[in-house]
C-alpha cells in the first residue's frame, strides 16, 4: 500500500471516529433520559404505594398505576433506542474491521512481492558486488540511491503493516466491548418488559374491580362536580371583582398591573411546576377512566403527588383570597396582573389574603383524601378565561 493510500485510510478512520463521537453524545443523552425515567418510576411507585395504603381499588390508584405504566414504557423505549444506536455502532465497527483486514492482506501481499522481486533482481548477488560492478561512477551513484530508496520503501511498508495491525486490534477490542454492552441491555430490556406485563395485569384487575363499584364512583363523581362548581363560582366572583377594581384603579396601578401581566406572559412554557408528581387529569374535556359515556370537563389540571408535599407559587404576585371548599380543601388564588393562578386541594395554608409572594414561595401543604390520594387542582386564568396550564409550565 502506498503512503497516500494509508493516509486515506487514516482519514477515513478519523471521520468514522468523529461520527462515533457524535453517536456517543447521543448515547449519553439516551442514558440521561434513562436515568430521568428511573427517577420518574421511583416517584410514581411511591405515589402508587400511598394510594394502596388507605383503600384498595380507587380511581386515584388507577391514575397512579397508569402513570407507573407510562414511565415503564418510556424506560423501555429509551433502552430500545440505546440498543438501536449500539447496533449501528457495531455494524459500523464491523465495516471498519473488514476494510482493515483487506488492507492488511494487500499490504502483506505487496511486501512479499517486493521481497521476491528483490531476490530475483539480485540472484544471490550481495549489495557490494551490485555496487562495484557498475560500469561508471554515475551508474554507481544511481545504484546506491536506488538501494537506499528500496530499503526505505521496505521499512515504510513494514511500518504500515504494523500500524494497520494495531488499528485492527483496537477495533476488535471496541467491538467486543460493544457486544458485551448490547448483551447487558438485552437482559435489562427483558427484565423491564416482564415488569410492564405485571403492571398491565394489575391495571386490568383494578379496572375490573372498579367497574363493579360503578354506582359508588358515580356518586363520588357527582359530589366532586358539585364541589368543583362551588370552587369555580368562588374563583369567578373574585376575578370579576378584581377586574372591576382594576378598571377603577389609578393610572400608576394600571401600569404596574400591565407590567406584571407582560412578565408573566413572557414566561410561558418556562414556569416551574407548583408541586412534584404527574398530571392525573388534563385540561378540558376527557372521558372518565372507568365510567363509560361519562365526559369530564376540567378548567385546569390535576397533579397527583406524594403525601405532605409543599405547594409553591409558580410566579410572583399577590394573594387575592384563601378559601375552604368541602371535598376540595383550601384554595389559594394569586393575581399576576391580568393573569391568575389557582392552587386548590391544600391541607394547611402558609399565606394570607393581601400578602405578596415570590416565585417558589411555599403556599401550603397538600391534602390527602380518604382514598389516600394527594392531588392538587391547578389553574391558570387570564381575566375569567381558563387556560391550559400545561402550555405554561416547563415541560418535564
TrEMBL record:
InterPro entries assigned: Cell_wall_metabolism_enzyme, Dup_hybrid_motif, M23ase_b-sheet_dom
Signal sequence coordinates: 1-23
Coiled coil: 25-110, 182-251
Keyword annotations: Coiled coil, Signal
Entry keyword Cell cycle: no
GO molecular function, one term: metalloendopeptidase activity
Top-rank taxon, per record: Bacteria
The keyword Transmembrane is annotated on this UniProt entry: no
Gene3D superfamilies registered for this protein in UniProt: 6.10.250.3150, Glucose Permease (Domain IIA) (2.70.70.10)
Ranges for domain M23ase beta-sheet core: 298-389
Stated name of the protein: Peptidoglycan DD-metalloendopeptidase family protein
Organism: Fulvivirga lutea
Amino acid at each position: 500500500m502506498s503512503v497516500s493510500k494509508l493516509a486515506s485510510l487514516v482519514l477515513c478512520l478519523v471521520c468514522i471516529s468523529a461520527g462515533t463521537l457524535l453517536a456517543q453524545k447521543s448515547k449519553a443523552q439516551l442514558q440521561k433520559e434513562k436515568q430521568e425515567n428511573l427517577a420518574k418510576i421511583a416517584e410514581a411507585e411511591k405515589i402508587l404505594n400511598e394510594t394502596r395504603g388507605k383503600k384498595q381499588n380507587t380511581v386515584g390508584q388507577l391514575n397512579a398505576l397508569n402513570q407507573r405504566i407510562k414511565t415503564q414504557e418510556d424506560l423501555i423505549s429509551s433502552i430500545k433506542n440505546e440498543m438501536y444506536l449500539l447496533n449501528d455502532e457495531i455494524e459500523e465497527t464491523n465495516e471498519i474491521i473488514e476494510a482493515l483486514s483487506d488492507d492488511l492482506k494487500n499490504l502483506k501481499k505487496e511486501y512479499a512481492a517486493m521481497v521476491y522481486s528483490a531476490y530475483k533482481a539480485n540472484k544471490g548477488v550481495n549489495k557490494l558486488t551490485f555496487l562495484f560492478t557498475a560500469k561508471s561512477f554515475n551508474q554507481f551513484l544511481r545504484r546506491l540511491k536506488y538501494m537506499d530508496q528500496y530499503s526505505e520503501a521496505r521499512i515504510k511498508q513494514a511500518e504500515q503493516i504494523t500500524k494497520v495491525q494495531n488499528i485492527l486490534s483496537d477495533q476488535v477490542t471496541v467491538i467486543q466491548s460493544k457486544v458485551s454492552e448490547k448483551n447487558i441491555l438485552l437482559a435489562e430490556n427483558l427484565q423491564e418488559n416482564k415488569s410492564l406485563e405485571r403492571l398491565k395485569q394489575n391495571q386490568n384487575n383494578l379496572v375490573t374491580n372498579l367497574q363493579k363499584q360503578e354506582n359508588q364512583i358515580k356518586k363520588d363523581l357527582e359530589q366532586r362536580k358539585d364541589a368543583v362548581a362551588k370552587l369555580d363560582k368562588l374563583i369567578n366572583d373574585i376575578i370579576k371583582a378584581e377586574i372591576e377594581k382594576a378598571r377603577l384603579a389609578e393610572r400608576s396601578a394600571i401600569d404596574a398591573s400591565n407590567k406584571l401581566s407582560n412578565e408573566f406572559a413572557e414566561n410561558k412554557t418556562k414556569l416551574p411546576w407548583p408541586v412534584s408528581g404527574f398530571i392525573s387529569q388534563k385540561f378540558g374535556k376527557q372521558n372518565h377512566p372507568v365510567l363509560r359515556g361519562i365526559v369530564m370537563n376540567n378548567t385546569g389540571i390535576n397533579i397527583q403527588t406524594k403525601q405532605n408535599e409543599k405547594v409553591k407559587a409558580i410566579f410572583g404576585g399577590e394573594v387575592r383570597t384563601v378559601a375552604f371548599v368541602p371535598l376540595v380543601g383550601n384554595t389559594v388564588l394569586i393575581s399576576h396582573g391580568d393573569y391568575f393562578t389557582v392552587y386548590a386541594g391544600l391541607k394547611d395554608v402558609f399565606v394570607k389574603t393581601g400578602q405578596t409572594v415570590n416565585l417558589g414561595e411555599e403556599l401550603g401543604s397538600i391534602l390527602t383524601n380518604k382514598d389516600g390520594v394527594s392531588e392538587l387542582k391547578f389553574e391558570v386564568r387570564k381575566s375569567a378565561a381558563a387556560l391550559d396550564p400545561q402550555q405554561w409550565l416547563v415541560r418535564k
